[in-house]
Write a structure and sequence with these properties.
The structure holds 2 protein chains of 2 kinds.
Chain A lengths: L8 E2 L4 E4 L3 E2 L3 E4 L2 E4 L3 E6 L2 E6 L11 E9 L3 E5 L6 E4 H5 L6 H4 L5 E9 L5 E4 L6 E2 L4 E4 L5 H5 L4 H10 L2 E4 L4 E5 L2 H16 L6 H13 L9 H14 L2 H4 L2 H25 L3 H17 L3 H12 L2
Parallel strand pairs in A: 3-7, 10-12
Antiparallel strand pairs in A: 1-6, 2-5, 4-5, 6-7, 8-9, 8-11, 9-10, 11-12, 11-13, 14-16, 15-16
Helix pairs in contact in A: 4-6, 5-6
Chain B lengths: L17 E5 L7 E7 L2 E11 L13 E8 L14 H14 L12 E10 L4 H15 L9 E8 L2 E4 L3 H6 L2 E8 L4 E5 L2 E2 L3 H30 L3
Parallel strand pairs in B: 4-5
Antiparallel strand pairs in B: 1-2, 2-3, 3-5, 6-7, 6-8, 8-9, 8-10
Classes of the chains: A alpha+beta, B alpha+beta.
Chain lengths: 314, 230
Amino acid sequence: MIYVENKDLVIPGQILADDEYYSGRGTFKDNGKVCSSLMGLVSLRNKKIRVIPLKSKYVPKKGDVVIGKINDVRFSMWDVDINSPYSGILPAFEVFGREKKELNKVFDVGDVLFLRVVDVDEIKKAKLGLKGRGMGKFKGGIIVDIAPTKVPRLIGKKGSMINMIKDKTNCKIVVGQNGLVWVKGDEDMEQLTKNIIHLIEAEAHTSGLTNKIKNKLYLAIDGELPPEEVSEEEEEFVLEKPKLQNFKEELEQEEREAEEKEAEEKEAEEDKDEKEDKPDIAEVIEELKKKNKNKDNTISYGDNSNNSFILNNK
Amino acid sequence: MSEMIREDGRKFNELRPIKIEAGVLERADGSAYLEVGGNKILVAVYGPRESYIRRLLEPNTGVIRCRYNMAPFSVDDRKRPGPDRRSSEISKITADALRPALMLENYPRSMIDIYIEVIEAEGGTRCAGITAASVALVDAGVPMKDIVVGCAAGKVNDEIVLDLSEVEDKEGQADVPIAMMPRTGEITLLQSDGDLTEEEFAKAIDLAMEGCLEVSKLQKEALMKKYSTE
């Protein structure tokens, strides 16, 4: 017996299902019943129930990309605040190998960095590194703070949401999985982007968000609504969304295999669709041109954010 | 039970009017505002977060710390600000009442701070504080087994009644505040002040538990209201 439906809003202690269902993240088993331990949305897949929280703190995980602020400079490492109950450390050898330099000349207190979680030990202390494309210090720009659970929503399917915002506002945007977002562009565009990001955070649990945000963006920048597109496509978008929120869980070892298979099948299907959709060469060329343009706009940091998408869609 | 009408016109098993709102503070991780009769209580939750008081942290689980505080203007006479015997007791029992419901194994060496501010007091603030604090904890996204809820019963004019007001508390013969987890019915707080026979005590607990279930519904409604999509 199951008492809830997919995407239902549940609260802690609420009974979700009977014994024949498996209890996933955000749930626990008590007295033969699967109960929710969080306030969030139900995600049902193959008799496995999970609850995706509306709010939560970031707990560092190996392989994540995060944005952190230098809190302290010590003898051989930096203390980094990664917007989590657990602080991160950036050892000096991760930055300059065996060479010895003065640490505070490279990064000083208050600098904001784009980092990768190299390792997390049993007391959840995160060891950070700078290996990877585009990792390093940010110059200028603003930091926007959102709930880490809303990050997948901000990125959207294959980066649809974030790319739309980037294109429209001409800002460079980098999203860390710890819920910090770096935005750089014109001053008023930075503010607009910040507002848009907060709007996405506030309405992340609603459906049809991409469209809503698109309208808002066009209204704010062009003063008019975007040209009507084929609405069916957008509808499909909406349906796909709940899966996006799960990307973190998808990284989980236990489910990895099963999910990968599914994902592969899905991608294969999608590829087919795309090919059928675009037989016209001219369109393909235009598409390529657009892509190149985007690259020019975001020379250095555009790569970073793409990097994070790749991770997310793993 | 007779059809006794109490001083404020309530029946023996009637609660005072309750209003609960979740997520009222911008900067706190979770918050709640609660009114029960003349009580006005604001709760803020911060965390799980890193704490610099290392000796309080546990290597295998997260810990909670609670502070109950009454505003100087919350009572008729001025309440001398700062912690006193009563508020440190309530701080402790609130933390103890909430702790069994929390699942903090995934947040070792971290701390959750709960601040309960009584803006206006009219009897039964400890139960109201627990009720509001658990709503704030849910709002903060802390994993929990159940939403703890508090309610009191007592003896006034030789009758067992629910949810004592300030007058009833002062002039009555006994006061039994409890807190419980409504799904399993486990009681996480049980205090008793005054004289009760064994029979009356059992009756008082039953009545208070009924009251808890009633308040629990309102808690859930408040949480759902905050995030439901119209």
